[in-house]
Amino acid sequence: MKKEAEHNINDRIKAPQVRLVGENIKSDVYPLEEALRLAAELGVDLVEVVPTADPPVCRAIDYQKFLYEKRKKKKNLSQNKESKSSRKSVSVRIQTNMISTSK
Predict the structure, then answer these.
(1) Which of 27, 69, 76, 93 has the fewest C-beta atoms lying within 10 Å of its C-beta?
(2) What does the domain layout of the chain look like in residue ranges?
(3) pLDDT value, residue 33
(4) 81 in the Ramachandran plot: left (φ > 0), alpha (ψ -120 to 50) or beta?
């Protein structure tokens, strides 16, 4: 069984209009057909990154690169979280010695 994609890409996007962002693209609201055409011209995929927005936000990027960057970001966040939660303790002891001198 093939795992279902976690993002809608290309022809799986159902919204009539999308807010398109990406490199070499003017960020704006485009009809879906035009956004797909622009992504195809650049040789990349149209990835729906925020489906709950109105209109949905799509990014013109290679889908595999997008997944790689997302995994890398998630890994870095978890590493930062681990390093911040570790606790270091330092104890300092000061001892004073009484020196008696006799004359």
Answers:
(1) 93
(2) 10-78
(3) 94
(4) alpha
